[in-house]
Design brief:
- Two copies of one chain form a homodimer.
- In chain A, 74% of the residues lie in helices and 0% in strands.
- The N terminus and C terminus of chain A are likely disordered.
- By secondary structure, chain A is mainly α.
- The longest helix of chain A has 32 residues.
- The two termini of chain A are 35 Å apart.
- At the A-B interface, helix 2, helix 5, helix 13 and helix 15 of A face helix 2, helix 5, helix 13 and helix 15 of B.
């Protein structure tokens, strides 16, 4: 391999290989050990493990120990780690830092694979039949839970805090998400999953994912152009709606064709490879018509959810999610600059107010959605509202893509992160206060 | 993200993201569709699927359609593919080619993950107890099957073809491997796996893997220094032997500790993440003491082979291997320059002779190993010798690492590839001629 950095730095290609391997392997090691340690702590506190991955990222990242530092975070690999790697590879710490930055895109590629695998799994586990059973009520809750935080958040950021239109719209969009995984695990643990409230929330969360990812795809694509204009916006909305409609139809019709193809395959790894081909095909198609590839990954999962091999696909995808989605969430934490939220610096007061505002709107908007539906039977509307609250992994995906697209200020990034952490943390805690537990079990989350 | 190429080429970061995603997703799509199509064909001919992945790589690579072209192959993305991507991302084909080359390391990082996963799985599935049962005979066959091709190959390349010492030693080392997976699948299919011949071959193949990977680790590390010298060589040999000895001891002693840790873990994905931590730890340790990280991956598998969770680990690793090891094998094929073997060009005559010589030594050396052991019972020594013959994935791992280290000429690379393909192709064919099939089944291979 010809490495541009080897020409610049005048080190032998063998030393470079050694340093690259040490850096790439060592990064995984740090990410997994720290994320797992904190996740284990949170599980014992009956909190979602995804919070642990975020906190691990913040701890080891640009705001913490400087062990994992994305090049865009304007921070450098910590002196201790750089020194250790330098002595092992027989290079100077400066050279190690240059190789570190140069190899960072490989880690980002792995984290992107994790994002696609997670969205694919979310689509795969979406039970569209559940949505149909509680159809009208779930639809009302989902739409209210998308419209209320989006409208109030965007309008408030523009009117009160004078945030420009594009980042305000993006932050509003990031508040529309609902994490199926976290909600389902808390309801399951409290044995409310099969009650009407649980069914409405899960149905609404599925629909919310679809709405949220469509909004995301449109917002990122429009924002990518640098400014809002009506023509492309309408075109993209139509493309997004058409894409999801085709995916929903295919989830009913295409699964038998997929199953037939898989049955013809005889070489090992057939289900895994065939699913991955569907995944890449959908990602490519989504990106080719101007939408986010992430929407394609979700659609691929929806399409395959009706396959008779869906259990085998699930088994094959879960290890990928356990490994690579963790990298995705930890990387989000590493890039955060939490110093912008230091309350002792008067310059940060505005940022803290924005964070508080987003958190309040994020809670109020979803809780209010609990009162949006009509029901003949009495249901606990507070439980429905609180169940819609955790943004979890979906909110983080929004944040991660917004950061990648470079449209958020550090203060707004940190505020969105606090909103995601706050809602994800508070939802299980508040639900446990509102619902008396019949028989406590260990909490579970999908990542 | 700040992309160096975006500054150079003056394209917007959104266009760049779109082009990157299209390229990265599209590359996976091409790799998997073509590799799977050819693997399915070969399975129906009862040939190992790994040949299909190699052939797919050659077909779509620098010697073929130019759809997947490693930057070091001095070839460019084909005009058709570049044009399609350029029109989808609204860029020029030249810009697409620049982004293509810039993002190639991400694909290589994924292929490296596949290599580690495959070696981990090989270690995990090594049944050390089988080795002990046929101990003496398997050891003799393994040592003879390593020493004969290595000595004859290296000496012949230097004496007859005047190849310099370092590439000659490397080519000799590449001939020592035996593919457990291919051998086991052919013997299993012919129902000879539980006979004495099958037991000796599998035992010898396990030991051969250990010897081969140790040789590889030492050769690559010594060659990395640019020249042979006795001091580092002795040090590395000792380090390699010590490393494997520690791994073997740990495979007996450390599994209960690992199982205890896994039993304490409560967050989801516990087995997957814990195994990955052991894998990265071993890779880091191997690389840190100057050996190949690949040896660490294999040792990690050996260590965990005695875990009570080994079945769950196996289930978690197999999808990773099915996806990413395929990328590794296809990439090897894409980088090959087969034009150096065109028999109509007189300049290639020497290269063809080298290829023929390597293939002959590779076959003769392993077949002769079948006559190296003492046995009171009558055994079919030709079956044992032919069973040791397929180099398969292990030979390719050698070739891949030699290419990465840049120590082989294109002609020698192509000759080693032909040697690997030839032995992998001939072994099942010749074994079927020598052993009468009792009840034919579909062939299986691990990748």
């Amino acid at each position: 391999m010809v490495h541009p950095v080897s020409l610049l730095l005048e080190v032998s290609s063998h030393q470079l290989e050694v340093a690259e391997t040490l850096i790439e392997v060592g990064r995984f090691l740090v990410i997994f050990v720290v994320a797992r340690a904190i996740a284990e702590l949170l599980v014992r506190l009956q909190l979602p493990t995804i919070l642990g991955e975020l906190i691990a990222g913040v701890l080891i990242g640009a705001s913490g120990l400087h062990l994992i530092v994305p090049p865009q975070a304007q921070a450098q690999l910590g002196a201790g780690a750089a020194g250790l790697l330098a002595s092992l590879a027989d290079l100077t710490p400066e050279t190690v830092r240059a190789i570190y930055d140069e190899t960072f895109p490989s880690l980002q590629a792995v984290s992107q694979l994790g994002l696609f695998a997670l969205l694919f799994l979310t689509g795969l586990e979406s039970e569209l039949d559940e949505l149909v059973a509680v159809g009208a009520q779930a639809t009302t809750v989902a739409v209210a839970g998308v419209v209320l935080p989006f409208a109030a958040g965007t309008a408030g950021l523009i009117a009160i805090f004078h945030v420009p239109l594009i980042p305000a719209v993006f932050a509003g969009a990031a508040m529309t998400a609902t994490s199926i995984g976290i909600t389902a695990s808390v309801f399951g643990e409290l044995r409310w999953l099969k009650r009407r409230e649980g069914q409405i929330v899960i149905g609404a969360a599925v629909l919310d994912d679809i709405l949220g990812i469509v909004i995301l795809a449109v917002v990122v694509a429009v924002v990518g152009g640098g400014a809002f204009s009506v023509g492309p916006l309408v075109k993209l909305c139509l493309a997004a709606v058409a894409f999801v409609a085709v995916a929903l139809v295919l989830s009913r019709k295409a699964a038998p064709a997929f199953d037939w193809v898989v049955d013809q395959l005889k070489a090992p790894g057939d289900v895994t490879v065939a699913s991955f081909v569907v995944l890449t095909l959908c990602c490519f198609a989504a990106q080719a018509i101007g939408l986010e590839a992430a929407l394609g990954a979700f659609a691929a999962g929806l399409i395959l959810s009706a396959s008779k091999h869906s259990h085998a696909i699930d088994t094959a995808v879960k290890p990928l999610v356990a490994l690579f989605a963790t990298v995705f969430f930890v990387l989000i934490g590493t890039g955060m600059d939490l110093s912008v939220l230091n309350p002792f610096d008067p310059a940060n007061r505005e940022g803290l107010l924005v964070a508080g505002f987003l958190l309040a709107v994020a809670i109020a908007g979803k809780v209010a959605a609990g009162w949006s539906y009509l029901s003949k039977e009495p249901t606990n509307r507070l439980v429905v509202g609180l169940g819609m609250m955790p943004r979890g992994e979906v909110g983080l995906i929004f944040l991660g893509l917004g950061t990648q697209a470079g449209i958020l200020t550090p203060a707004l990034e940190a505020a969105i992160l606090l909103m995601v952490i706050g809602t994800t943390f508070l939802a299980p805690v508040l639900l446990r206060l509102v619902i008396p537990a019949e028989e406590p079990e260990a909490a579970q989350s999908p990542a």
